[in-house]
Amino acid sequence: MNFDFGRVALVLLFAIVPIGGIILGIRAPALRSRIPIMVGFLAGLVPIVSLYVPKNFISGPTGMSPRLDQWLIILAGFALLLGIVNVLQTSIRKITRREAGWPFAVVLLAGLFSTGSFGIHGAISGQGIGFLPDGSPTPFKYMADWFFLPLQSTIFSLLAFFMASAAFRAFRARNTEATILLVAAGLIMAGRVPLLELFALPFPGLQPAAAGASQFLGRTTEWIMDTPNGAAQSGIIIGAALGAASMAIRVILGIERGYLGLGKGE
């Protein structure tokens, strides 16, 4: 029997140490934040070290880092359960107090219980959540196709109207930046559809020139999307990555402690 150092280390760092921290926190409230900070430090350090240390016990297929990823999936499942409990508490409180929007909370709970019960029934009975052997949809699939998807389409259509109204307010040549945005948006919209060819339909002699101009607009649109827009997107992605990295470093080093849920001075 081989000694699995990675498994033993994970159990020691993320099971025994937190339990000891809970006991110490009960006896000494001043230590309540120490163990969670240490666990967060180790949880952030293990994936980083696995990228630079090619050892099986930490970065191998059954090493600490892959196993820790599996544990995080389990924790995500418990976090989902916690979110469901929070939704239930909030909705029930709103319904009992007859607060503003309480009928929507009733609809939310009805959808939660119905889809959840259909999904659990499909898992227990072995039918799944797709189609039955005869080709008919399961109750969960029926709910998803005839309730969830239409509601999702409605939300996206409303979002399209909001985006159109926001674009109408933004596309005004008030300054140089707004003018550049207006011209670029006009070129992109004109290059996505064959407007020039449509306008040239009543004039057969202009159709070849309109087709060439439409292709030129299409190439211009692709250049705008690939070069200036791509550069701007790269800058935004780099900035977001630097922000995420800095926040991760703050959490690993114990500088950011908002996730602990402790009061001031703890």
Compact summary:
The protein has 266 residues and is mostly helical. Among the domains are: 1-91; 100-170, no CATH class.
Write the layout of secondary structure elements.
Blueprint: H1 5-27, H2 34-52, H3 56-59, H4 64-96, H5 102-125, H6 139-170, H7 176-192, H8 195-199, H9 207-226, H10 228-252
Structural summary, described in words:
Among the domains are: 1-91; 100-170, no CATH class. The chain has 266 residues and is mainly alpha-helical. It has 10 helices and no strands. α7 crosses α9. It has helices at residues 5-27, 34-52, 56-59, 64-96, 102-125, 139-170, 176-192, 195-199, 207-226, 228-252.
Query: What is the rounded distance between the termini?
Result: 45 Å
Mean pLDDT: 84
Strand content: under 5%
The profile of the biggest β sheet is: none
Per DSSP, the total helix count is 10
Quaternary state reads single chain
Number of distinct beta strands:
0
Summarize this structure as a short list of keywords or feature phrases.
266 residues; mainly alpha; 10 helices; extended
